[in-house]
Write a structure and sequence with these properties.
Helix content is 32%, strand content 22%. It is α+β, with helices and mostly antiparallel strands.
Length: 520
């Protein structure tokens, strides 16, 4: 128990790092009959960095009466928190093509109503950075926030940009003015004029931008281009060090997934020395953002590899496997998905399993991870709260208190599901095999049905999985660690939360354990 308790701080730190989950997925319309709407253009002047505010100019396309609301985000996918970004808007002005003012009215905390949208040519607003703007409630997670200082700017899309009612799916072009000595890190691509291009507002939110005095390093894993950009306030950490830490993990993921399902990926690291700011990570379709304390790098670098593994695995869930709730995100009213067990639980399981299978993580350390997660899930969270309850109440105060258990109990349930699938298939098909198969069926542009996915998953695998979901995802039935891990020759001591190798394992158990540890 002493070893467990001494590791709680590290585990809880890890939970904090990965406390942001699935984000809106970037999709592209393939129907040639869809009429392309005129793009919305944004300009951000980062040469003017006074007052801790972003100066934003919006050039509107041709609007109609249906576009009379300019909306700021009330929440963002994967954060499971109320953001109410409208709180940070300091000024908001609309003008026609001659520069005449058009009446606007703030009708809610996140909405500005425009009296005559048909006449609007330009909107100008200032929005405060979240890092240095105190709020009375619902503070913004660091990894989902914004910062603007002399040597850098951090932009998370939902905290800087808004959209016109009815134009959430319109293309957005972003022009950023910034010092010549700065570098820019983002997964967004640029057009011929240097503007960053997003195919929708969801795409903007899905693509954070880090600018400033950055270091950069690039590599190629199989056929996937990897970029790492690092802002380190005191220059203590370089991107080369980050690559050295996670390069083995990237190769592990490539093997685990039988090839990476993306052609590019960008790691953005924002590292300061102000430990008062919450640290964390937020994954996106083609990038992930990490807010860290550069003074702690030596202590957390190993943990960071596991965190990065978690965030990186989101290229599968939910990028390639997600429901319509994720694909068509509601930025006005939060809508919870019941499938956090898949998006976060399975991802957290996979982040450790792929390191185990590649020998980036030892078998002994993997068993210690199971032990810690089992201890924390039992002693720090309600044992009567199911994963489904956690999912559906994730935006509520009660769900927020339980939310971090998705990285404990959620990962443990995914591990049990893996063993059950291997058992039912005679060792031929584990959880990652099923996930890889589903990723090929769906992909970034095809969502599964939120309401029927439990049934579909069962039909796609084995009838017995229906009971598994009922007991361990939909209900809060105590998890059968001893029964399941015995199937692969691992003993479980419930009193000590201890997983150990069974020296008397049968040939059948050893065979299943080999398959469990080695990817075919």
């Amino acid at each position: 128990m002493k070893n467990i308790k001494s590791s709680i701080a590290l585990i809880l730190l890890t939970v904090l790092f990965i406390s942001c989950g699935n984000t809106a997925k970037t999709t592209q319309k393939s129907d040639s009959k869809v009429v392309k709407k005129e793009s919305v253009k944004f300009n951000i002047d980062l040469n003017n960095r006074i007052d801790d505010t972003f100066k934003v100019t919006v050039t509107a396309p041709k609007l109609s009466a249906k576009n009379n609301i300019f909306q700021f985000a009330s929440t963002a996918p994967g954060t499971y928190q109320v953001m109410d970004i409208g709180r940070f808007v300091k000024s908001f002005t609309a003008m026609d093509e001659k520069g005449n003012l058009i009446t606007t009215t703030k009708i809610s905390i996140n909405q500005f109503e425009i009296s005559t949208p048909e006449k609007v040519k330009t909107i100008i607003y200032e929005i405060s950075e979240t890092y240095d703007t105190p709020v009375n409630e619902h503070p913004i997670y660091a990894m989902a926030g914004t910062s603007i200082e002399e040597d850098h700017a951090l932009i998370n899309g939902q905290a800087v940009f808004g959209y016109f009612k009815g134009l959430q799916n319109s293309e957005i072009n972003i022009e950023i003015e910034y010092p010549e000595t700065w570098q820019v890190g983002t997964a967004l691509t640029q057009n011929a004029t240097g503007e960053f291009v997003a195919n929708s507002y969801d795409h903007v939110v899905d693509s954070p931008i880090l600018l400033g005095n950055l270091t950069k390093v690039s590599t190629v894993i199989d056929e996937t281009n990897i970029d790492i950009y690092t802002y380190s306030a005191k220059g203590m950490i370089q991107s080369e060090e980050v690559l050295e830490t996670i390069e083995g993990m990237l190769y592990s993921a490539n093997k685990f997934l039988n090839g990476l399902p993306v052609d590019r990926y960008t790691f953005l690291l924002f590292m300061e020395t102000n430990t008062q700011k919450a640290k964390g990570a937020w994954e996106h379709s083609y990038s992930s953002l990490y807010t860290l304390d550069e003074n702690s790098w030596d202590k957390i670098s190993t943990t960071f590899k596991e965190i990065a593994a978690h965030e990186f695995f989101h290229i599968v869930t939910p990028l390639n496997i997600h429901s319509e709730v994720i694909q068509e995100f509601n930025f006005i009213t939060p809508v919870a998905s019941q499938h956090l067990w898949l998006y976060e639980g399975t991802t957290e399981w996979a982040s450790h399993m792929m390191l185990l299978r590649s020998r980036e993580k030892s078998f002994e350390d993997y068993l210690k991870t199971l032990r810690r997660k089992a201890y924390i899930a039992t002693n720090y969270y309600s044992t009567d709260y199911s994963l489904l309850d956690l999912s559906l109440n994730s935006f509520e105060d009660g769900g927020q208190k339980e939310y971090a258990n998705i990285y404990m109990k959620g990962a443990l349930v995914a591990g049990l599901l893996d063993i059950r699938l291997l058992e039912l298939s005679g060792g031929e098909r584990g959880l990652i095999d099923v996930i890889n198969e589903l990723a090929k069926i769906y992909g970034p542009n095809k969502a599964f049905d939120e309401a029927t996915f439990f049934t579909y998953f069962t039909e796609f695998t084995y009838p017995e999985i229906a009971e598994f979901f009922e007991l361990y995802v939909k209900k809060a039935t105590p998890l059968p660690y001893k029964e399941y891990y015995q199937k692969i020759g691992i003993q479980y001591d419930a009193e000590k939360y201890h997983f150990t190798v069974d020296e008397n394992a049968t040939e059948e158990q050893l065979k299943l354990r080999t398959r469990w540890m080695e990817q075919l």
